[in-house]
Design goal:
The complex is a heterodimer. Helices cover 75% and strands 2% of the residues of chain A. Chain A has 22 helices and 4 strands. Chain A has helices at 2-24, 34-41, 43-76, 82-94, 97-108, 113-118, 128-151, 156-164, 169-198, 201-206, 213-223, 227-255, 274-303, 316-356, 362-370, 377-387, 399-424, 427-435, 440-468, 485-495, 498-525, 529-536, and strands at residues 26-27, 30-31, 304-306, 310-313. In chain A, the strands form 2 sheets. In chain A, strands 1-2 form a two-stranded antiparallel sheet. A two-stranded antiparallel ribbon of chain A has the order 3-4. In chain A, a hairpin with a 3-residue loop joins strand 3 and strand 4. Chain B is an alpha+beta fold. Helix content of chain B is 25%, strand content 31%. Chain B has 9 helices and 21 strands. In chain B, a hairpin with a 2-residue loop joins strand 9 and strand 10 (223-228). The chains are: A mainly alpha, B alpha+beta. The A-B interface holds A 155, 157-158, 160-169, 171, 175-176, 179-180, 182, 257-261, 263 and B 62-64, 83-91, 93-95, 97-101, 110-111, 114-115, 142-144, 158-159, 162.
Chain lengths: 541, 361
């Protein structure tokens, strides 16, 4: 079993990565550092690197700050609308970044509902601040979940101890709660940075002259047909992401040691000074309003004749979307379901193999199964084009390649959730099974799998949702026959068919929402809540 | 003594009084007209089963929980409604609640920093407190590197270093293993004696309470069942609950008339205060070590030995009285027995009248 996994990961992870680096190191087929020299000397290219890094850093800090404030308001205060706030943080998980982008254009674009209709402004929104705003929207939700996951583990007795020793409410937060949240905040900043660096859709649609490594690699490939330069952009992007990921792992391992023993004592609120309360609450309200506006405007655009000018109800766009997108919808359903099954099963098996057995190359398998998490979507997309365009692995244009990329990118998520589930399972039950004479495979099938049942289902649903929303990784790989819904949305926006794009987005949102609802229902029934947020954060970029 | 200077400086001599405290969480009445008076320098144990309100009472003293009604006095000062930050009480939490991101020194220094104690004065005070709890060289250790007992000591040092008006301990030993618990118990008692600090000690462990307390307050369902010296509470329980909760005891049905009652087939005179309450439903209770076993069962209540347990300092028997079938099994503990009886043997039970306690059913 470990051997099979190693071979598969070797083919579908290592081989494409090597191909990208190989291509980035060649100019017209000759081995050369020319691409990298251009990358760092040609001002227009070098500008992309530092601009996208700065924007990513800005997005990371802003999103983490907002995520922190929202988490604190939701869990540590008695301010009104807390439930609404935490609902608002779920919305971006259902609305992919590029759909939010479309809605942002409805609202703030040249004929935007708010900027033009309401305020009479004529703004050019195609610039980097717009990218920052939309990405913050998307990533604040992620930062919120990360920080929340740490915040719920903080024992309020520790805060009480600080109070007892004379700390004011603000000092309790500053000297106890905030330092304990540090691991979560650092994780949020790093992960958001990685994602923002790798972001593709938002930049293509909203960036205007602003480009990131990911979006520039797309234009190099689609516009200039320079696959070697596209590979170079992605190679640099990967190195930045890997460096960030290394910091992330380091921060995680050192933070694991300073966790307070949680006794489950009831959560206790912190009474912040009034001006701070007002400021925090305002930030939550602004975020929530923005998110809800985005959500509403997608529906508005989908079901009215023309958003911005004619608000007559119509099903025209939806009908066209269903006609045009029918194959995309079906494909999405097939692919997402297949990916869901594959990812959840592979995840639990991998986790079992890695945590319960010992073999040569275990560290390597763990590394290979974790690596896709740090690989940006466009990188792996280009890697697959390069790796699988000739025999014996001629896969370009087939559905297999699209399937493979969606599954591989979610293997880390499957593995982490599987490991989380297994770490909660009482190992002595498995030992009892083997002492009663069951072999390893019997134990796995009859004991481990049934106990992990609901958790596996949740992982499958996450994989489903995440496949529905995949764009960057598959945009280079799809052909008319293997088109997915997200690609249909992308193309509709690209062609300027905003209303149809909105209608297609609504279908996408409904699919995602159905998956999330399933997760929610399972959560309500079982005790899966504790690790679920961690799994969510393993979603591919 | 290590702690002399700290003890001398400590603000000794503030008593604590809770007057008519009421507290509900939702529909649950946790404390009901609860009153408590702790003398200056005294170690008072709040003892009771989980959910009896003892921890809530402690948190009300500390100010972490606000009472719905009633008054909290520290010395002569009414501190009801004063936030915990301003009370100057030292609290030791059940799970220690050490600050995991700080080292031992910073944990202990925390309260002093909040009081803006100048750096020059701070270091000696922290080191002295660590010395008192015998962790003098542990200042720069991380909290997670310490054992449970050491963490407990840090928590104690952290509470003591601020020279609190009183020390509040919430089940401080419940996370330690049995042997360490006994050691720490003595340690806490030693420090408390030396510093003469008013202390409220919450526990559900009656043995712990017995061994450490100057005075025990037995609580049940938000009320005080009995207050007294450890020995009083054990030997003269006022209610059936107290008798049952503290130590082991046999409850034995009795038949009574206006002047006397029958227990295990023998007659006894009713105590004066129970005269003429013959129709009241009462039940008898006898501690296992107060029952004597004799080979001569004809002159006593006959019973058959069902089980014999050797528990080290004593032999514990489970016996079935052979008189009435309604009589429950009786437990007897024989310390320094002259003779050990065997399973199935018939023996005699001898109970002195003064060892019988009578309770309302």
């Amino acid at each position: 079993m470990p051997g099979l996994f190693l071979v598969l990961l070797g083919i579908f992870v290592v081989y494409p990565v090597i191909n990208v680096f190989e291509n980035s190191l060649s100019v017209d087929g000759e081995l050369s550092l020319g691409n990298y020299i251009r990358m760092f000397t040609q001002p227009s290219f070098f500008k992309i690197l530092w601009q996208s890094s700065l924007v990513a850093l800005l997005v990371a800090v802003l999103s983490s700050g907002m995520g922190l404030i929202m988490a604190v308001v939701v869990l540590k205060t008695t301010l009104p609308f807390r439930r609404l706030f935490s609902f608002a943080t779920i919305v971006p998980l259902i609305v992919p970044g590029f759909v939010a982008t479309v809605a942002y254009i409805f609202l703030f674009g040249r004929s935007g509902l708010i900027t033009y209709k309401l305020l009479g402004l004529d703004l050019d929104i195609y610039n980097w601040p717009s990218v920052v705003i939309v990405q913050c929207l998307d990533f604040t939700a992620m930062a919120f979940l990360l920080i929340m996951a740490v915040l719920v583990t903080i024992d309020s007795q520790v805060e009480d101890a600080a109070r007892n020793l004379g700390a004011s409410e603000w000092q309790v937060f500053k000297t106890v709660t905030l330092p304990l949240l540090k691991p979560g905040i650092i994780a949020a900043i790093i992960l958001v940075f990685m994602r923002s660096m790798a972001a593709f859709g938002t930049v293509i649609f909203l960036g205007g002259p602003f480009a990131t490594l990911a979006s520039a690699s797309y234009t190099q490939l689609i516009g200039a047909y320079n696959i070697e330069l596209a590979a170079t952009f992605n190679a640099v992007l990967l190195l930045v992401c890997l460096a960030a990921f290394w910091f992330f792992l380091k921060a995680q391992s050192s933070s694991n040691r300073i966790r307070a023993a949680f006794t489950g004592s009831s959560r206790k609120t912190i009474l912040f000074p009034r001006p701070l309360r007002i400021a925090f609450w305002s930030i939550c309200i602004i975020f929530t309003t923005f998110v809800l506006m985005i959500l509403v405007s997608v529906f508005l655009a989908a079901f009215t004749r023309y958003i911005g000018t004619d608000y007559t109800f119509t099903l025209e766009h939806m009908t066209r979307a269903l006609q045009r997108g029918s194959s995309g919808i079906l494909n999405t359903l097939y692919f997402a379901s297949a990916a869901a099954i594959a990812v959840s099963l592979a995840g639990i098996i991998l986790a079992y193999v890695l945590t319960r057995t010992d073999f040569m190359g275990k560290g390597l398998l763990d590394l290979l199964a974790t690596m896709p998490f740090a690989i940006p979507g466009t990188f792996i997309g280009i890697g697959y084009i390069l790796a699988f365009n000739q025999p014996p692995l001629l896969l370009t244009g087939t559905w297999i390649i699209v399937m493979a990329v969606t599954i591989i990118r979610q293997v880390p998520m499957g593995l982490r959730s599987g490991a989380a589930v297994l770490s909660q399972q009482d190992r002595s039950v498995e030992e009892a099974s083997s002492s009663l004479g069951a072999g390893r495979i019997t134990t796995f099938i009859r004991i481990v799998l049934p106990m992990a049942g609901p958790a596996i289902l949740v992982t499958a649903l996450y994989a489903f949702v995440s496949t529905v929303q995949t764009l960057g990784a598959i945009i280079f790989l799809v052909t008319p026959g293997t088109k997915l819904l997200s690609i249909d949305v992308f193309e509709a926006v690209y062609k300027g068919e905003i209303s149809v794009a909105a209608a297609l987005s609504v279908i996408m949102l409904l699919l995602s929402a159905a998956g999330m609802l399933g997760i929610y229902l399972i959560q309500q029934r079982g005790k899966t809540t504790r690790w679920i947020q961690k799994v969510l954060l393993q979603r591919p970029m | 003594m290590d702690s002399e200077s700290l003890a001398a400086k400590a603000d000794v001599g503030k008593g604590i009084r809770l007057i008519d405290i009421g507290k509900s969480f939702g529909n649950t009445r946790v404390l009901d007209n609860f009153s408590l008076s702790v003398q200056p320098g005294e170690l008072c144990c709040l003892l009771g089963p989980s959910g009896c309100g003892k921890t809530t009472a402690l948190k009300i003293v500390d100010g972490l929980t606000e009472p719905d009604s009633g008054m909290v006095l520290l010395g002569d000062q009414n501190i009801t409604g004063l936030p915990a930050q301003k009370r100057n009480l030292g609290m030791v939490f059940q799970n220690y609640a050490l600050f995991p991101q700080m080292d031992v020194y910073e944990n202990v220094a925390y309260g002093l920093r909040r009081r803006r104690v100048p750096e020059k004065e701070l270091a000696p005070r922290v080191n002295e407190a660590l010395k008192i709890v015998r962790l003098a060289d542990y200042g720069n250790r991380r909290v997670h590197e310490l054992s449970g007992g050491q963490q407990q000591r840090v928590a104690l040092a952290r509470a003591l270093v601020i020279k609190p008006d009183a020390l509040l301990l919430d089940e401080p030993l419940s996370n330690l293993d049995a042997r360490l618990r006994t050691d720490m118990r003595q340690e806490i008692k030693r420090i408390q004696r030396e510093m003469e600090i008013t202390t409220i000690y919450v526990t559900h462990d009656q043995e712990e309470a017995m061994s450490i307390a100057d005075r025990i307050v037995v609580m049940n369902e938000g009320r005080v069942e009995q207050t007294g010296l450890p020995r009083e509470v054990y030997e003269d329980p006022r209610t059936r609950f107290v008798a049952d909760f503290i130590g082991r005891i046999n409850f034995i049905p009795v038949e009574s008339n206006s002047r006397s009652f029958r227990l295990l087939g023998r007659s006894y005179v009713l105590p004066d205060e129970l005269f003429d309450t013959g129709h009241a439903e009462i039940i008898g209770a006898v501690r296992p070590e107060r029952i004597k076993l004799t080979r001569d069962y004809a002159a006593a209540t006959a019973a058959i030995v069902r089980d014999v347990f050797f528990i080290g300092a004593a032999v514990r028997y489970r016996l079935q009285p052979s008189g009435s079938s309604e009589d429950p099994e009786i437990e007897v503990e024989a310390y320094v027995p002259e003779e050990v009886f065997e399973n199935g043997q018939t023996v005699g039970l001898v109970i002195q009248p003064e060892d019988i306690r009578l309770f309302k059913k």
